[in-house]
Every structure is written in structure tokens, then in C-alpha cells.
Amino acid sequence: MDVLQQLAATLEARKNATADESYVASLYAKGLDKILEKVGEEAVETILAAKNVKAGSDPADRVISETADLWFHSLVMLADLGLGPDAVLDELSRRFGLSGHDEKAARSD
Fold first, then answer.
1. Which of 12, 37, 68, 72 is the most buried (most CB within 10 A)?
2. d(CA 104, CA 98)
3. Which residues does 17 contact at the CB level (< 8 Å), separation at least 6?
4. Cα(44)–Cα(36) distance, rounded to whole angstroms?
5. In this structure, is the dihedral angle defined by the CA atoms of residues 43, 87, 7 and 60, taken in order, positive or negative?
6. What is the rounded distance in angstroms from the CA atom of residue 67 to the CA atom of residue 35?
7. Rg of the chain over all Cα atoms, to the nearest angstrom
8. Distance, CA of 12 to CA of 2 (rounded, Å)
9. DSSP 59
């Protein structure tokens, strides 16, 4: 089992935990709005880290750490919605080999 599958399984298991047992369970208990707030917060932190790495004021591992936080909270969001990483990976596979311009144009139809 790869790390995404392991994480998805853990996130599912946390749905049965109490909020005081698990950070993820506490997010689930607070609801989708709180989860989305965390995704947004982590997205901003990732953007700022990337800018700082590019400017030379942060080491590269900073953007890796922030991106891991963003991906993690995105996976929590997907799990809360009854989805998982396989759906995203399937969509990326579908797009592979497609021109980005063509894929974007198809979405606007």
C-alpha cells in the first residue's frame, strides 16, 4: 500500500475517533467549513513559502513542509466528502497527454 492509500485509510478510521483522540477527528467534528478554512490557510502558507524559497529567504524544505500540510488537509477534505486520493489520481491520469489548453477549454464548455 502506498502512502496515499495508507493516509486515506487512516483518515477513514479517524471518522470513528473522538475529537479529543485525534486532530483529524476534531476537524471532522467541527465540520466542512473548518476543514475548508484549514485548506485555505495551508494554501496561503504554501504560496508564501514558495515565494520565500524563490527569493532565497527560506530553505527549500519549507515549501515541501507547507505543501505536505496542504495535501494533508486536502485529503481530509476529500475524506469528509466521501472521496479519496484515487479519484484525484484517476482525474490526473485522464488528463495525462492532453494539452493543458485543450483540457481547460473542455472544462469551460
1. 72
2. 10
3. 24, 25
4. 12
5. negative
6. 16
7. 16
8. 16
9. -
Q: What is the CB neighbour count within 10 angstroms for residue 17?
A: 15
Q: 29 near 19, Cβ under 8 Å?
A: yes
The dihedral of CA 18, 37, 85, 63: what is its sign? Answer: negative
CB 80 within 8 A of CB 14: no
C-alpha cell at 59: 530553505
Rounded alpha-carbon distances, angstroms, from residue 30 to 54, 84, 106: 35, 20, 36
| CA atoms of 43 and 81, how far apart (whole Å) | 19
